[in-house]
Amino acid sequence: MKNFMIAHSPDADDIFMYYAIKFGWITESLTGKPSKKYKFQNIAEDIETLNQKALKNIYDVSAISFGVYPFIKDEYALLRTAISFGYGYGPKLVKLKGEKLKPNFKVALSGEYTTNALIFKIAYPKARIIYKNFLDIEKAVLDGEVDAGVLIHESILTFNERLEVEKELWDLWVDMAGETPLPLGGMAIRRSVPLIDAINIENILTRAVEVANRHKNLLAKMLIERNLVRVDDKTLDKYLSLYANDKSVELDEEQLNAINKLYEIGHKAKLLPKIKDIREYLIPKEYKNIRFEEE
Known about the structure:
Blueprint lengths: L1 E7 L3 H11 L15 E7 L2 H9 L5 E5 L3 H4 L3 E3 L5 E3 L5 E5 L9 E4 L5 H9 L4 E4 L5 H6 L5 E4 L3 H4 L4 E6 H9 L4 E9 L4 H20 L1 H10 L7 H11 L9 H16 L27
Parallel strand pairs: 1-2, 1-3, 7-8, 7-9
Antiparallel strand pairs: 3-11, 4-11, 5-11, 6-9, 6-10
Helix pairs in contact: 1-8
């Protein structure tokens, strides 16, 4: 049996998309038989920690920000599944109510390689940036440590009433790219993983997202009961409707084009290495239907 480490963030959509595997709902192949060849271990770490570890080629499979992928493209292939995009929504730049931000305002971001940091840097070149764990950003703004902060994950739905939204990052993205989905995060797999294994792992993860979506209410209830998420049931339902849905199962053409647009904009701003077409960095599509034979 081959062991693989899958790393994901502790936010609700990553946990939701992975835990169908953890709960034993996913079989290795379409035969319906339990896998005899793969054993998955999972670890949850904040997204910037995962980005930094991807730069060091630590985990076999890892959630990443799309903003880091151009820096790891030689070591990791991008998976087509477990993806998060914004459709009219996304991270939020917040400040204390009534405060006016100066051009060089101090801001807390969730990490140097996050997608929200990339978009923010392009839009606010004079801002003074510090990086914090995403769980600590709201408090930093409330305590006056920073003038503003970009909230991600569940915080976009639950932030303190003393705060107000200065700018939706969705609006910044539309100004840069037009009305196209906002690429936020996905999954990547080390290129050192044999191709047949990589194909099967992608298929297993894809099925996990499909099954999670199909049994959303049951899985969400189980996550709440086991204290695996940080929000209540109503907030979880709202959050999953945004970031763990039918658009999370497999990259479509609109999403692939949006990722290319992100990388074009980032390279033009001299913040990203050049990537011509993200399709060249996926697991070869012509092998998609290859399966292991059951022992």
